[in-house]
Amino acid sequence: MTDRTTVHLEINGRAEALDIEPRVTLLDALREHLGLTGTKKGCAHGQCGACTVHVDGERVLACLTLAAQAEGRAVTTIEGLAGPNGELHPVQAAFLEYDAFQCGYCTPGQIMSAVACIREGHAGSDEEIREYMSGNLCRCGAYPHIVAAVRQAAEELTAQKQAAE
């Protein structure tokens, strides 16, 4: 008999209760139990960043986080990033505008990390963006386009924030 536990999460603004084994990762809970396959399973060792999601607004690697560790917390995945009417988040729009992807496998993790990078205030220069995005690998080498997209989105979000003040 396998021990099971009920984990309560807020996923993309929706309350979820999952009956899972305690060893289930947040990545597997999202993909296999909730059908949210936008978060990618890359290396499963926390080295590629493909599984980046936000937990209470902080970026985390879902492959290294047990679902039970997120008990009662708000989890945002790539599926929950767009606005309520489907409008793209400025980072998503910038990735499209700058062709900041090739095969696209790393793109959800790159975008989630970029949103956090900007929110954390680490998008002041290309060098800073590269440093704070360094945990997200792109096998295709789209890095120059990714940095340009993050820079553009950071400028747009800063302008939106200033206009709102």
From TrEMBL:
Family matches, as SUPFAM superfamilies: 2Fe-2S ferredoxin-like, CO dehydrogenase ISP C-domain like
Record keywords, A-Z: 2Fe-2S, Iron, Iron-sulfur, Metal-binding, Oxidoreductase
Entries under CDD domains matching the protein: fer2
One of the record's GO molecular function terms: oxidoreductase activity, acting on the aldehyde or oxo group of donors
Sequence ranges assigned to domain 2Fe-2S ferredoxin-type in this UniProt record: 5-81
InterPro entries: 2Fe-2S-bd, 2Fe-2S-bd_dom_sf, 2Fe-2S_ferredoxin-like_sf, 2Fe-2S_ferredoxin-type, 2Fe2S_fd_BS, Aldehyde_Oxdr_Iron-Sulfur, Beta-grasp_dom_sf
Domain of life, per lineage: Bacteria
The protein, known as: (2Fe-2S)-binding protein
